[in-house]
């Protein structure tokens, strides 16, 4: 599995688990990681956010 596939998997999990509140969940993760100083974690969740936004733009949630 490629890194891109992993990130899409996380984005899909967020969409399935949190639905329209997924962006809030992602923001919480980024905030938590920022407080911990985890730059790699922040970058990962930003990449997930990008993919989640693409899902939402395509109408994944009605």
Describe the structure in your own words.
The protein has 62 residues and is mainly alpha-helical. The protein has one domain. It is 81% helix and 0% strand. The protein has three helices and no strands. The protein has helices spanning 3-18, 22-36, 39-57. α2 (22-36) runs antiparallel to α3 (39-57). The longest helix is centred in the C-terminal third of the chain and has 19 residues, at 39-57. It is globular. The protein starts with a helix and ends in a 5-residue tail after the last helix. The model has no long low-confidence stretch (mean pLDDT 94).
Q: What descriptors fit this protein?
A:
mainly alpha
What does this entry show, briefly?
This protein has helices spanning 3-18, 22-36, 39-57. By secondary structure, the protein is mainly α.
